[in-house]
Specification:
Order of helices and strands: HHHHHHHHHHH
Oligomer: single chain
Radius of gyration: 20 Å
Distance between the termini: 17 Å
Largest sheet: none
Helix content: over 70%
Number of helices: 11
Number of strands: 0
């Protein structure tokens, strides 16, 4: 017997639902919380908060963020839902699957989704953060500046410049999602068992996503600081030498710079991102 709280909408496929719900979630969260992200970037800048712009122009670089939001989030959720579904089928075919199998599935699926999303996210992040730190007056100016270097560094050099910080971004995002999504999925499962409903509501998903995001954000702040410094550096630097330089010049406290805005931003972002995703997904599947 089907759960009375759900009705399947046959007009959309799981792929389409993940694609559209993810695109909506990404655009909504990036635009609504952009000012906090700008303040966090300026706090982490090596030039300091006020030289990087302070409280002025907190929507600087928003254009590049909005361009990358929808495709990046859509790529993430399409990958996440598909891999999670396939791993679940594989687990259900096995007898006596370990209790920890499901959280590991969520870790693997979320990590793969982040790697896919970073193909879009990293170039837009490079452009966005240079505008946020007032290295360039706008997203378009930052993009033109990078493209203009083709004369000196060639097309491959421009490509590398656009993907500067790719490695450290992956190093930050994979641990982040490995914490956030198993927590989110686990709390959703707990809530479904408590209520007897087939799916959580958008509000419930948002609140649980906020808590999971706050925990993950705090734990991964040092990696976020390192990533920001790499993207803002005038010349490309390797992660380990840059880590040593920050440690020697500013001490260990530099690696928690911006932790307050980051936790606040990602906590609120988790509520909006996963709440709006759940709302869109529930709407397309007919959950009441």
């Amino acid at each position: 017997m089907s759960d009375p709280s759900t009705t399947t909408n046959t007009t959309t496929t799981p792929f389409t639902r993940a694609l559209l719900a993810g695109a909506l979630a990404g655009t909504t969260v990036d635009f609504s919380l952009y000012p906090i992200d700008t303040l966090k970037t300026r706090l982490q800048s090596s030039t300091g908060f006020y030289p990087s712009g302070g409280f002025r122009g907190i929507y600087a670089g928003v254009g590049s963020a909005l361009v990358g939001s929808a495709p990046g989030a859509a790529l993430f959720f399409v990958s996440y839902e598909e891999i999670k579904s396939r791993l679940r089928v594989f687990r259900e075919r096995r007898e006596n699957a370990a209790a920890w199998s499901e959280p590991v599935e969520h870790m693997v699926a979320a990590s793969a989704g982040e790697v896919a999303a970073c193909g879009v996210r990293v170039p837009t992040e490079v452009i966005k953060q240079r505008a946020q730190a007032t290295q360039q007056p706008s997203s378009m100016a930052a993009l033109r500046f990078i493209l203009a270097q083709r004369v000196d560094i060639g097309a491959l050099g421009v490509w590398r410049e656009m993907y500067r910080g790719w490695g450290i971004t992956i190093m930050r995002e994979v641990p982040f999602t490995a914490v956030q999504f198993p927590l989110w999925e686990g709390m959703k499962s707990w809530r479904r068992q408590r209520t007897g409903r087939g799916e959580v509501s958008a509000v419930e998903s948002g609140l649980l996503g906020s808590l999971a995001g706050a925990v993950a954000a705090g734990l991964t702040t040092p990696l976020d600081v390192l990533k920001t410094r790499m993207m803002l550096a005038k010349e490309k630097q390797a992660a380990l030498p840059l880590f040593r330089q920050i440690w020697n010049e500013s001490g260990p406290q530099a690696f928690v710079a911006g932790i307050g805005p980051r936790i606040m931003w990602i906590s609120a972002g988790g509520a909006i991102f996963l709440g709006s995703y759940q709302w869109a997904y529930n709407t397309m599947t007919g959950v009441t």
